[in-house]
């Protein structure tokens, strides 16, 4: 039985993909149920949000890391990948490690609670370049991420049907080629956003 009243098990999830595909909006939609419309605010460096979901009667905490896809932030992302070998506290480049802080202040989180992690890889269905870059992202992931990382491919902005340039089938085909699950989402309408995170939480919980 868990000694922590807040959750039974915790995992790190990281959002990846080109700039402007909707990573921050997908995270805000999942966390707050709202759409960050209007102005595009470039994420600087890496930030995270926590959310607890229920999987098979267990409280699963997802610590979701939002990243900037810009080339100039690549080194930051790499540093995270390299240290994401299962031990969150080994991340020295990032401030505000909740795991360390909670260990010290509450003593209720075991490091081993951070058993594995997942990557949500996003492209924008209205942007061919963001879709074409998915292969490069996957190459990078295979180079830097831990081997048993849970990966999911998301085609975002399905509400923009009129401007769609990447067919659903193309996303499905690419996902199948790499053996990863696939969903189309919209941070604007919220379609499939919660489902995607729940699918990842379920997979992480089952593998743990
Ligand atoms: P990031 O760089 O990947 O974090 O992208 P953002 O989350 O900042 O989103 C980039 C732009 O796309 C912003 O103007 C958002 O309002 C917009 N956006 C994000 N998700 C969606 C979506 O699902 N539908 C629509 N129509 N716009 C979106
Ligand atoms: Mg962002």
Please explain how this structure is put together.
With 208 residues, the protein is of the alpha/beta class. It is 34% helix and 24% strand. The protein contains 7 helices and 6 strands, in the order βαββααβααβαβα. The chain has helices at residues 23-32, 74-83, 98-105, 128-132, 134-144, 168-178, 193-207; strands spanning 9-17, 46-55, 58-67, 114-124, 150-156, 182-184. Strands 2-3-1-4-5-6 form a 6-stranded mixed β-sheet, sandwiched between helices. Strand 2 and strand 3 (58-67) form a beta hairpin. The longest helix is centred in the C-terminal third of the chain and has 15 residues, at 193-207. The chain is globular, with a radius of gyration of 16 Å. It starts with 8 loop residues before the first strand and ends with a helix. Mean pLDDT is 77; it is low at 70-76 and 82-116. It is a lipid-anchor. Its EC number is 3.6.5.2.
Structural shape:
globular
**In order across it, which strands form the biggest sheet?**
2-3-1-4-5-6
* Total count of strands: 6
Average pLDDT for all residues: 77
Distance between the termini: 15 Å
Question: In DSSP terms, counting alpha (H) and pi (I) runs of 4 or more, how many helices?
Answer: 7
Radius of gyration: 16 Å
Proportion of residues in helical segments = 25-40%
Strand content: 15-25%
As residue ranges, the low-confidence spans are 70-76, 82-116
Structural class: alpha/beta
- Major sheet size, sense and barrel closure: 6 strands, mixed
Distinct bound molecules: guanosine-5'-diphosphate, magnesium ion
Give helix and strand order, one letter per element, not per position. Answer: EHEEHHEHHEHEH
Family: Belongs to the small GTPase superfamily. Rab family.
Organism: Salmo trutta
EC number: 3.6.5.2
Main location: membrane
């Amino acid at each position: 039985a868990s000694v922590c009243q807040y959750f039974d098990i915790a995992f790190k999830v990281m959002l990846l993909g080109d700039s402007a595909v909707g990573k921050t909006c997908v995270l805000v939609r999942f966390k707050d149920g709202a759409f960050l419309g209007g102005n595009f605010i470039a994420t600087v460096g890496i930030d995270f949000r926590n959310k607890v979901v229920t999987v098979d009667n267990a409280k699963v905490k997802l610590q979701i890391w939002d990243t900037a896809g810009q080339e100039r932030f690549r080194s930051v992302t790499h540093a995270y990948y390299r240290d994401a070998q299962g031990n969150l506290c080994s991340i020295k480049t990032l401030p505000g490690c909740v795991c360390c802080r909670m260990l010290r202040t509450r003593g209720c989180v075991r490091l081993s609670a951070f058993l594995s992690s997942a990557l949500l890889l996003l492209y924008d269905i209205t942007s061919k370049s963001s879709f074409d870059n998915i292969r490069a992202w996957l190459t990078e992931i295979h180079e830097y991420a831990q081997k048993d990382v849970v990966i999911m491919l998301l085609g975002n902005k399905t509400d923009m049907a009129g401007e769609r340039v990447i067919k659903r089938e193309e996303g499905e085909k690419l996902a199948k080629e790499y053996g990863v699950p696939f969903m189309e989402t919209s941070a604007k309408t919220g379609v499939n956003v919660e489902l995607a995170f729940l699918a990842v939480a379920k997979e992480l919980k089952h593998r743990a």
